Amino acid sequence: MLLAEQALNGLQYGMMLFLMAAGLTLVFGVMGLINLAHGSLYMTGAFACAAVAAATGSFWLGLAASLVAAAAAGALVEMAVIRRLYARDHLDQVLATFALILVFSEGTRWLFGSFPLYLKLPASLSGAVVLPGGLHYPLFRLVIIGFGAAVALGLWWLITRTRLGIRIRAGEADREMIGALGVDIARLYTIVFALGAALAGFAGALVGTIQSVQVGMGEPVLILAFVVVVIGGIGSIKGAFVGALLVGMTDTLGKALLPGLLSRIWDASSANTVGASLASVLIYVLMAVVLILRPQGLFGARG
Amino acid sequence: MQQTLNRDTAVNLAIFALLVATALGAHLAGNGFTVTLATKAAIFGLAGVGLNLALGYGGLISFGHAAFFGIGGYITGILASHASTGTPVLSLPFTVMGSNEMLGIWPMAMLAAGLAALVIGALSLRTSGVYFIMVTLAFAQMLYYFAISWPRYGGEDGLSFYVRNSFPGLNTFAPIQYFAICATLLAVALVFTAVVTQSRFGLALQAARQNSQRTVAVGIRPYAIRLTAFVLSGMIVGLAGSLYADLNRFVSPAMLSWHMSGEIMVFVILGGVGRLCGPVAGAALFILLEHVLGGISDYWQALLGLLLLAIVLFAPGGLIGIVTKRGRHA
């Protein structure tokens, strides 16, 4: 029973990581850009949701606002800064986006203050449902899993079945060529960046609802999303999906089960501390193993 | 060429002299606080010099050097706290006692940071480009979470030790004497970097950055060269971490955080990538900005961010690039 609940938690965590990693991997695959400020867009979405939900009283409007605000912030940042970085090396990209994090974090602190904000779930989404087998599980976490699955399906449809998807894939393969074929690359890049930003903002709003909305909430998730992208392979949405679920499951199950497993060997208190420490590094061990076996990631084409 | 080389040397000497003069002037004026600031700049400069070896000369964009900074710090803190309680750090397989002698602590800190750099580097260097950035970041983050979740040495709260470690013949508590120690080590590291980058090894390292395939064609294995540079770089940063721990008499997981990695990187970039004294100038400017901008606004990091953006977009050679009127060295 505990196992089923933790597996669902891992699934929900993985779905959130997927929303973050999808944008990162898309932006890297298409534009060749490493974007540290992705976590700031996640934070932007969360704050937009909290502010709008507080002002209007509607959680759904807040959720919509998170998408719009993060996409708008993403498009704005792309046009003002990111656009100048495509031709630069990765070092410049890392620094410029690190600088953007400072600006975003301090700007948000200035606007909203340092105290965490809390979002209130509407009655229709709160409470628990009884799953087959008699497990009580929070409805909202199931809804998040549903959102994640829907986004994954939607992205798959967008990339493989639409005209925009064809252009995105063509942009990954050869950017000069699609420019020569008459595709407005600058606009395509802005759209891809805004799309990634919107997904990050959406994830921020959902996670902000479970936990809290505060400055700096984006960075831990950003680093986990990096781990996901490294495991899955850069540029691959499928890789991001599989990697995110792997990381989500490993982290959640490791934290839930390791102390218990170790307590069969050691006494309870040392099993608890060692288990907690081990569980916190488990996903990085997973990453190291993937790197040793497949340096390009599970679904990565390039080395 | 000779002209610009001389100019670079003059700028390098001027930067170091300025740092020392600031500390001495402040000491004579009885301003211990400024001496401590200069010490901090020397320590951060040392960390930047270490990173510069991998980043500037080797082209290895490591976003995880906080790992080595933190390891150096934690080794110092752990040894010092065991020395004060008189308990051994390790009893099996051999006994390691705590220590409060800097001369004993530094090699341990550098050794531990070097070993960590060997493991992290050996794994990370299997990848390149953007993977390398993410992987080094992730490994540093792993140590960060480990430090937080390991309660033995303070966990999330960090570890304080109340007495600064000692150095034979000096009173390390006097700000100017501690500055002298840090500045001397910085000078040693600068000379070491200058010698190493001019050596056959250093030339091979820079060749591997500029054109890896050609390096292979002349019979040099870039992997071994890069790993060596990464380990040396980690050891220098580990030493800086040890000095920083002694400066504050406190270590915490913050020394291992990704923010620290970013800051060490900022020192290098602010000053100028691949310049000998670039990181020193960058670290000094960073400390200066922290105090000037920090006095103007609580949100000084936003201003720092805008300044960084401007430098990346419009002055990629950094501070020294502006002074010597040349673009990026590396």
Automatic annotation (TrEMBL), chain A:
Coiled coil: none
Keywords per UniProt: Amino-acid transport, Cell membrane, Membrane, Transmembrane, Transmembrane helix, Transport
Compartment list: Cell membrane
Bilayer topology term: Multi-pass membrane protein
InterPro entries xrefs: ABC_transp_permease, BCAA_transport_permease
A Pfam entry, by short name: BPD_transp_2
Main localisation: membrane
Gene Ontology BP terms: amino acid transport
GO CC list: plasma membrane
Transmembrane helix is among the record's keywords: yes
A molecular function GO annotation: transmembrane transporter activity
Positions of transmembrane segments: 12-34, 41-61, 67-86, 98-119, 139-159, 188-210, 222-249, 270-293
CDD domains the UniProt entry points to: TM_PBP1_LivH_like (cd06582)
Record flagged with keyword Lipid biosynthesis: no
Protein name: Amino acid/amide ABC transporter membrane protein 1 (HAAT family)
Taxonomy of the source species: Bacteria, Pseudomonadati, Pseudomonadota, Alphaproteobacteria, Rhodobacterales
From TrEMBL, chain B:
Coiled coil: none
Main location: membrane
Keyword Transmembrane: yes
Pfam families with a match to the protein in the record: BPD_transp_2
Location relative to the cell: Cell membrane
GO cellular component, one term: plasma membrane
Protein's recorded name: Amino acid/amide ABC transporter membrane protein 2 (HAAT family)
